[in-house]
Amino acid sequence: MGEGDAIWAPSVLPHGALGTLSHYPQLHIGRRMESKVSEGGLNVTLTIRLLMHGKEVGSIIGKKGETVKKMREESGARINISEGNCPERIVTITGPTDAIFKAFAMIAYKFEEDIINSMSNSPATSKPPVTLRLVVPASQCGSLIGKGGSKIKEIRESTGAQVQVAGDMLPNSTERAVTISGTPDAIIQCVRQICVVMLESPPKGATIPYRPKPASTPVIFAGGQAYTIQGQYAIPHPDLTKLHQLAMQQTPFPPLGQTNPAFPGLDASPPASTHELTIPNDLIGCIIGRQGTKINEIRQMSGAQIKIANATEGSSERQITITGTPANISLAQYLINARLTSEVTGMGAL
Hints:
This protein is of the alpha+beta class. Helices cover 35% and strands 23% of the residues. The protein has helices at 54-61, 66-75, 97-119, 141-145, 150-159, 184-200, 238-249, 281-288, 293-302, 326-344, and strands at residues 36-38, 41-43, 45-53, 78-81, 88-96, 130-137, 162-165, 175-182, 219-222, 225-230, 233-236, 273-280, 305-308, 317-324. The strands form 4 sheets. A 6-stranded antiparallel beta sheet has the order 4-5-3-6-8-7. A 3-stranded antiparallel beta sheet has the order 9-10-11.
């Protein structure tokens, strides 16, 4: 069972609340499912996956990772946060049921604290609810909704939390988002009930876990640095900065008549020149990309104008004309060559 697989189980419940272990054959499946009867209830190791925005993840991590460290120590649960500068991240909480719910409660209360702090600077008078998103295998969502929505209605009424199951699966996965909102206490009770439902109806077939992809964000160059735009912020991007600096080094002379030293290379003074390339027809697709996405990225990142000639009858090649400053042209060439290399070496996803 992979790192991303969601395994659901209830917290320790009163004796007899869930019957005997023999009613739950799925508890014996998978290396993480260590099950035992303890204190007259059922105790298992489980994993809950949460989908969070970058700002929420930042709140959970805290300054120098202090908040998440405290949550791990006090709850006893493992809390892992997916890598990558994606707009969305997966937070995986693993451990015995008691530890899971302690960690979950700490996250819910931290989010409530953030809401209260943000309200102190805002004229709003009514406090918005805490909202969390669980990631659940789609094959279990039917059981969670129940016949005619009966189960989800019962959970809403008994916990006071709002619960919504997304109609569509998350991209490139067989999982759906389940959004829960309400007071921290209502959310914790709601998750306990959802876990019971998930345990009673294990996933059918293999689950393809959702893995957030980095957003295709605009790129700007300033002061010799490359930045990607995320929300209202410009985030430094070291890989693109290296590319940009490489291109700048190939400029034969400093830009003439530069008026703004803070933005080297962005001044329109250097004379525009033109460079032509010929590319085999069968490789042009990897440079253009689906609906022109790749060529638009290359235009945006390099700042050059790039025109691809129409295919001519009887010719096995296409002409590409690049216009711009020497720096623009060399960066566009570099990016085009990188696309060709990745295609030829079988790394077309690059």
